[in-house]
Amino acid sequence: MRVLVAGGAGFIGRHLCRELIHAGHRVVCVDNFSLGTRAGIEPLMSVKAFGLYEADITDRERLEQIFEVEEPEYIFQMAANSDIRASAANPDVEYRNTYSTTYELLNCMRKYHVKNLFFASTSAVYGDKRGVVLDENTPDLSPISYYGAAKLGCEALVSAYSYMNDIHSLVFRFPNVIGPGLTHGVIFDFIQKLGINPSRLEILGNGRQTKPYIFIEDLTDAILRFMITPASGVALYNVGVSGETSVTAIADMLCEEMGLTDVVYQYTGGEGGWRGDVPRFCYSADKIHKAGWSARYTSDEAVRKTIRGVLGERNVCL
Ligand SMILES: NC(=O)c1ccc[n+]([C@@H]2O[C@H](COP(=O)([O-])OP(=O)(O)OC[C@H]3O[C@@H](n4cnc5c(N)ncnc54)[C@H](O)[C@@H]3O)[C@@H](O)[C@H]2O)c1
Q: Over the stretch 69-85, which tens digit does the pLDDT of each residue have?
């Protein structure tokens, strides 16, 4: 198939582009490099089945040109703001890069009769629901971050556009996604900080924030597995893993892997790492398990594998 990956130069997008090419698809990546980098997708540039457009997805005229030239059959919407601190300071970032990118893609799909969509959603749409095992039917979705709110708005758009235009949509709510080539998140931050000062580690919050982490290979495996069975209307899945990992446990694993024995942890305090951070959540993956998929790695294994991968490769992106 001819597929278009919006935000394909980002952390997950790069891995996804590579796997889609391996699966035999022709892949066009559209990215404005606001967060992703050209260097990150450099290894794909020589591949015949790969094409790149540096473009802002909110630029309607430009996006329409790309749809006209490339005639995509399947759209993967991975473009969003992943810099939560930037949007805490300025919510416009979420409106533009998370919500409006989805809106513009859906409008192009409507105009050019593209019928297949994958949408990257997030656990952040649930909000802070401590003590509840979150499944796809959990009511009262009340995000506590601008990011979660923008993603929930996108899910609503996907629902309406799918119904109005007979689009088959696959919506995955990801937990934290990690793996080699990480560009953000707690493991990335800790490695940066310990690189600067290996005797002291600042940990945002009280370190007891506990969440599921999925390894990137598991995520792309699930995406590719489900893309071949067209959803009828909107198919929504939590992509869950077994277990959760605390922030302090991540710090411990990292210090162990780096051979650092006397690092002093300095907690900034508070339950969440920052305002809008959901300190604990627990996913039910029953629905996706029943549909025949489960993750290969537990949350702790994903963290360990990622630390080893990132430490081993440092600057390797793909
Ligand atoms: N990484 C995670 O843990 C996680 C968890 C839940 C959901 N998600 C979702 O998965 C998707 C990919 O996440 P990621 O971690 O790879 O993030 P990322 O920031 O690495 O990738 C997002 C990409 O979108 C691009 N982009 C942003 N605004 C754009 C615009 N206006 N026009 C063109 N390109 C634009 C960025 O340059 C970047 O390359 C996102 O939608 C994110 O919300 C990620």
A: 999 999 999 999 998 88
pLDDT digits (tens, 9 = 90+) for 18-31: 999 999 999 999 99
Where exactly are the structural domains of the chain?
2-177+212-238, 182-211+243-279+297-313
In the CATH scheme, what is the code of domain 2-177+212-238? 3.40.50.720
Largest CA distance in the chain: 60
* 16, 19, 28, 35, best to mutate for ligand 1 pocket (most atoms within 8 Å of CB): 35
How far, in Å, are 68, 170, 175, 219 from residue 295 at the CA level? 37, 18, 12, 8
Would you tell me how many other CB atoms lie within 10 Å of the CB of residue 23?
14
Q: Tell whether ligand 1 has an atom less than 6 A from the beta carbon of residue 7.
A: yes
Q: Can you state the angle between helices 216-227 and 11-22, rounded to 10 degrees?
A: 50
Count of residues in the chain: 318
For residue 261, how many other CB atoms are within 10 A of its CB?
Answer: 7
Distance (Å, whole) CA 18 – CA 269: 40
Between CA 133 and CA 139 the distance in angstroms is 12
